[in-house]
Q: What sequence folds into this?
């Protein structure tokens, strides 16, 4: 970038070699700017953005019910977000969380269909296991394509999403359709032993604790174990990891399977805790929103909790503005805008502005006084 | 255009200063190149010659100083402007698009003819072919670049510069990737270009080449221009003295202290190893060698003669296509990196931050890279955090690594400290054999000395060291036995006390060989 | 093949070609930006914005041509945003593309909703070529296709010629495979990347407009129903080649139509597996290509997804 000369001062923008982290408040600013940006579109259409935002806010946080709904939405986002974050750490661009989520939901439901009469503990455990395995296997396909056939994982995981969703449609329209369901495309409602326990009068269920536990487990594993060290090394420099004797291919496969497995658990938690049946609309894009969640959190586990709740709140807020005639998918618009501004902020904070005073005689000797603005 | 009086220089550089942060890359450098000569700029790695070349063709802008082309003061803002002043650059890593043909690469970026149909193409191919012949540059015009050898790519690059009407051609380390025959061809071509009136500037750190082929020689050391004279007024010995500065040309040997009774059993033995290079070429050709415990074996050779593959095969990073590896008397059938580490082979790779370390991680994590699974550092898969930190601190202390803290990202350390850290890690595991590939590249004198001391220390503990280096002085200084590698074969073996530089040099360039190698082309 | 009479075959081909048009346009857009090294995962979003722009403008103005122009503008606005994020801010191209799609999905449904399902009065007509009717079978197929079909074919051919027969195309190919080398040879890398991403996005917008102006003349949320993602697959399936893209798009159009037709005529065959075909074929073909061309250039732009960063200048 060309320096700017103003009043005997040389002002240049340069990349700060040391700063790699973006301060947390940059994200807050980005969120605010994103809301302002979206407000522009609302004004354009004759809506009062303040009304809309306050409606959204009170919808998401204004009542116990709203809060519980927000946390409810955050559950699959946390699990899928953690999944993609793990893969992204080692630069594997798994965008297949959506499909892995669906396969997890399908596998969990298959337990309810083929082994209906079990007790609550065993059926929930089995469902969780099935969800994890199905998601992991679905991600294994991506891993095989990437490692052995040189297929770009972005495309591969994207294609598998659609295959999974179509497979889901097939199941709920054909073999698994509830015979007493008035032709509704969905399975029969789960029995109470197949449902995750929820809070009284609210929909918030045990899945929230499962998601928090998963994130905690991940944070602990990364910090204290071999596997965490390997992950760190691999994310820092894959060549060095290979040189240190790590089987990089196998590690990528393991990471992708864990990533898929977490999305699979999210699918299980969603059918067992929220919808209580497998139906077509089970995903509603959690797998894609999770990518935004992971990115907003900069792949940091605690950040994932916060950004999941934020995105959950935006989704719930989106529902509540339907009452004043706006579409719920406004939530997507706000999420997208937040992402843009966070990306912008990230780049912004990697640079610092350097002001040098130029001595008037010659510009050979510059007495440089660094002024760090950011 | 130009003043006909006192014959302007093609390039005239006056008092150029260029700094990168605190580092002074070129310090008050002045430099003149006559029209129609081949001018060599000599200097070791990091002497500032690449920076000077980058200033000449407009990539960097100098902090101060004057640059004149054909007597006219210029100030390039970009390589494009330099190209308009008929300066063409041939980079060390070729600037060619590998999937396109030579033809497309040559015409890339040129404004002529927006429509490029079949007829136009046909005509152009003919034109390029005949022009290339005229310059004595042979390459397949319609072949994709990824299918070409290094020499062919370089000829395309040179032609690309010529085709852009360059009168001054700058070549950065042109022979570093070439086989000796290709280098000879290159110099023949350059002489031919000189005859057509082109001015040629090339950088290198190889003395022998410049004596043969160049008209004028300038020498840089540590960012300064230390000498400049016609090649007829100097000789290799003189050049070496100027290049090395105060260091004596005759390297002081560091001999083994104990009596040199050779152990009966060798540590490592390679038998007729063949291996493929990066582009599928035969990089190692029935190479055999052995290393005894308690000796440093120096492998000398011009870069690109299979050194990388040699190191990678011993350390398991690449598998040989044929041949056998024997370590401590046992054949290794299927080598893996992990397997080689476990049997005690340590490795200092050529490129520190690319393979040897993870730059964004701290010293603790980098030191743990190969040992984290050992009981000392972890228990049942759980890392022993505070203990590892103490351990890392003690290593940093013992090996005299300068770092603000053990938790400082290593990419921010100096090259010397990075290398010390890397060597510390490799040596701490007490390996039986250390393969060190260019261990002192880009290091200053002090850091180089401490790296050498670490290697000598390995020797005194009866460990084997295979030192692969381009720096002949380094090899002469510390090795107990010298092997010369040329085109993937060992072509000579020397006692360092009896060998002369000249003699080894002849083997390195393939003019001589001790062994009966019929396959030598 | 006896189960289909000649007429049904013809109808099937016509339907496939028609279904292929939006896919083809979006694919061409994707090819342009990917050849310049920028992965466009915002295609779905750009199509939606193109569609909603066409929808609104055609309601206001009753002019299909103005609608097309605004869809191009809407698409290129998103393209400029993608280019800014990926090239200037050097952000991750996958995340940026997904962000564009999310944002555009929300924005399009927000904008479309306010028109409450009213229908524009304009449609792009068919191009009747009566003399073609005299040629049996194929002539009959091509005699009554929509204008947009011909326009999409025309754009594909123009792009083919431009990419492989012009100076501009050489630069485009060069910068996808070796941006540093192209930069060195004097190609303005960033300008080309911006330009290609924006033009590509405009084509995606046009693809969206086609959906409104030819197929479903009314707005509903998620109108594109995943066509943008199919186009992402098609870009790769066609090996970044505009002429291949025509045939690949028609093949995928055929899958789409078969999905409907089979549902109509043979109620007991589940259509889901037919609908999976585009995705399955893409994966299988990619695996096959990957297996055959190990360590060789396989047509994929080498710098794809990696933002070119010029060496720091002093």
A:
């Amino acid at each position: 970038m060309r320096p700017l000369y103003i009043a005997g001062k040389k002002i240049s923008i340069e990349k700060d070699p040391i700063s790699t982290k973006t301060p947390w408040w940059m994200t807050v600013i980005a969120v605010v700017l994103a809301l302002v940006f979206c407000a522009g579109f609302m004004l354009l259409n004759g809506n009062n953005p303040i009304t809309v935002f306050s409606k959204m806010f009170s919808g998401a946080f204004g009542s116990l019910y709203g809060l519980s709904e927000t946390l409810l939405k955050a559950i699959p986002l946390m699990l899928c977000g953690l999944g993609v974050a793990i893969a992204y750490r080692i630069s594997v661009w798994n965008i297949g969380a959506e499909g892995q989520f669906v396969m997890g939901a399908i596998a969990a439901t298959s337990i309810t269909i083929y082994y209906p009469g079990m007790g609550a503990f065993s059926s929930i455990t089995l469902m969780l296991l099935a969800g994890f395995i199905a998601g992991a296997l679905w991600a294994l396909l991506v891993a095989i394509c990437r490692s052995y056939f040189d297929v770009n994982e972005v495309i591969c995981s994207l294609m598998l999403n659609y295959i999974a969703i179509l497979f889901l449609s097939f199941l709920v329209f054909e073999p698994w359709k509830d015979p007493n369901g008035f032709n509704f495309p969905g399975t029969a409602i789960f029995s109470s032993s197949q449902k995750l326990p929820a809070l009284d009068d609210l929909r918030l269920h045990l899945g929230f604790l499962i998601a928090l536990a998963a994130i905690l487990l991940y944070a602990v594993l990364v910090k204290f174990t071999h596997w965490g060290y390997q992950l760190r090394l691999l994310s820092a420099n894959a060549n060095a990891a290979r040189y240190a004797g790590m089987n990089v291919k196998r590690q990528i496969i393991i990471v992708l399977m864990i990533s898929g497995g977490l999305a699979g658990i999210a699918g299980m938690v969603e059918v067992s805790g929220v919808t209580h049946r497998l139906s077509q609309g089970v995903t509603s894009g959690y797998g894609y929103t999770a990518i935004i969640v992971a990115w907003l959190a900069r792949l940091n586990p605690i950040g994932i909790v916060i950004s999941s709740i934020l995105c959950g709140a935006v989704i719930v807020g989106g529902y509540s503005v339907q009452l004043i005639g706006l579409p719920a998918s406004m939530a997507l618009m706000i999420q997208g805008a937040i992402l843009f501004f966070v990306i912008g902020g990230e780049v912004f904070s990697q640079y610092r502005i350097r002001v040098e005073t130029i001595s008037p005689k010659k510009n050979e000797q510059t007495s440089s006084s660094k002024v760090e603005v950011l | 255009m130009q003043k006909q009086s006192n014959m302007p220089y093609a390039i005239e550089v006056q008092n150029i200063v260029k700094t990168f942060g605190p580092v002074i890359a070129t310090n008050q450098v002045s430099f003149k190149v006559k029209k129609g000569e081949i001018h060599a700029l000599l200097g070791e790695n990091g002497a500032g010659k690449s920076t000077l070349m980058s200033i000449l063709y407009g990539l960097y802008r100098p902090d101060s100083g004057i640059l004149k082309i054909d007597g006219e003061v210029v100030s390039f803002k970009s390589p494009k402007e330099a190209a308009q002043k008929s300066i063409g650059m041939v980079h060390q890593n070729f600037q060619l698009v590998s999937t396109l043909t030579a033809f497309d690469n040559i015409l890339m970026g040129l404004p002529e003819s927006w429509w490029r149909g079949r007829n136009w193409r046909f005509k152009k191919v003919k034109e390029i072919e005949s022009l290339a012949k005229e310059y004595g540059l042979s390459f397949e015009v319609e072949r994709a670049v990824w299918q070409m050898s290094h020499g062919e790519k370089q000829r395309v690059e040179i032609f690309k510069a010529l085709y852009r009407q360059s009168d001054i051609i700058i070549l950065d380390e042109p022979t570093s990737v070439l086989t000796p025959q290709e280098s000879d061809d290159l110099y023949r071509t350059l002489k031919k270009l000189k005859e057509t009136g082109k001015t040629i500037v090339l950088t290198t750190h190889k003395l022998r080449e410049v004596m043969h082929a160049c008209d004028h020689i300038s020498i840089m050391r540590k960012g300064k221009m230390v000498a400049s004279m016609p090649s007829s007024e100097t000789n290799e010995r003189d050049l070496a003295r100027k290049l090395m500065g105060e260091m004596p040309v005759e390297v002081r040997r560091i001999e083994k202290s104990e009596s040199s009774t050779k152990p009966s059993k060798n540590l490592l033995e390679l038998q007729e190893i063949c291996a493929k290079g990066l582009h599928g070429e035969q990089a190692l050709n029935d190479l055999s060698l052995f290393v005894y415990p308690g000796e440093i074996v120096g492998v000398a050779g011009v870069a690109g003669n299979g050194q990388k593959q040699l190191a990678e095969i011993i350390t398991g990073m690449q598998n040989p296509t044929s041949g056998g590896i024997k370590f401590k008397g046992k054949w290794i059938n299927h080598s893996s990196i992990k397997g080689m580490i476990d049997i005690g082979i340590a490795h200092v790779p050529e490129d520190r931050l690319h393979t040897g370390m993870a730059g964004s991680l701290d010293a603790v994590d980098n030191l743990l890279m190969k040992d984290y699974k050992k009981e000392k550092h972890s228990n049942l898969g759980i890392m022993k955090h505070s203990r590892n930190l103490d351990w890392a601190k003690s290593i940093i202390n013992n090996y005299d690594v300068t770092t603000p803290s053990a938790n400082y990202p290593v990419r921010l350390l100096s090259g010397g400290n990075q290398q010390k850290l890397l060597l510390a890690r490799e040596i701490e595991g007490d390996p039986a054999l250390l393969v060190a590939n260019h261990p002192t590249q880009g290091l200053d004198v002090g850091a180089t000395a401490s790296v050498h001391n670490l290697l000598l220390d390995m020797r005194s503990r009866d460990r084997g060291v295979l030192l692969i280096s381009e720096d002949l002085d380094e090899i002469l200084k510390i090795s107990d036995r010298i092997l010369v590698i040329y085109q993937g074969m060992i072509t000579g073996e020397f006692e360092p006390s009896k060998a002369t530089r000249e003699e080894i040099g002849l083997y390195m360039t393939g003019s001589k060989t001790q062994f009966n190698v019929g396959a030598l082309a | 093949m006896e189960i289909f009479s000649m007429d049904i075959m013809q109808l099937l081909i016509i339907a496939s070609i028609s279904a292929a048009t939006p896919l083809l346009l979006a694919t061409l857009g994707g090819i342009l930006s990917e050849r310049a090294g920028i992965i466009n995962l915002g295609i779905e979003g750009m199509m939606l914005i193109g569609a909603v722009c066409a929808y609104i403008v055609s309601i206001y103005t009753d002019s299909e041509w103005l609608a097309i122009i605004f869809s191009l503008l809407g698409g290129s606005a998103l393209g400029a945003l993608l280019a800014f994020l990926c090239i200037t801010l050097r952000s991750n191209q996958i995340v940026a593309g997904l962000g564009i799609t999310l944002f555009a999905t929300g924005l399009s449904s927000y904008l479309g909703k306010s028109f409450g399902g009213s229908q524009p009065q304009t449609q792009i007509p068919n191009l009747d070529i009566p003399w073609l009717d005299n040629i049996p079978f194929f002539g009959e197929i091509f005699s009554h296709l929509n204008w947009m079909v011909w326009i999409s074919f025309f754009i594909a051919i123009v792009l083919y010629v431009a990419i492989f027969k012009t100076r501009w195309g050489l630069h485009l190919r060069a910068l996808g495979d070796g941006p540093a080398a192209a930069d060195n040879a004097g190609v303005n890398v960033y300008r080309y990347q911006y330009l290609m991403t924006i033009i590509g996005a405009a084509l995606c917008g046009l693809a969206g407009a086609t959906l409104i102006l030819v197929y479903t003349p009314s707005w509903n949320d998620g109108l594109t129903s995943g066509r943008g993602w199919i186009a992402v697959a098609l870009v790769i399936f066609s090996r970044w080649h505009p002429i291949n893209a025509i045939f690949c798009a028609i093949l995928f159009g055929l899958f789409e139509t078969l999905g409907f037709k089979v549902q109509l005529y043979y109620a007991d065959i589940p259509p889901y597996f037919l609908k999976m075909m585009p995705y399955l074929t893409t994966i299988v073909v990619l695996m096959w290509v990957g297996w055959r061309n190990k360590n060789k250039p396989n047509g994929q732009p080498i710098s794809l997804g990696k933002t070119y960063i010029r060496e720091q200048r002093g």
Q: What stands out?
A: Chain A touches chain B through 25 residues (CB under 8 Å). The longest strand of chain A covers residues 351-358. Chain A has 13 helices and four strands. Strands of chain A lie at 4-6, 9-15, 351-358, 366-368.
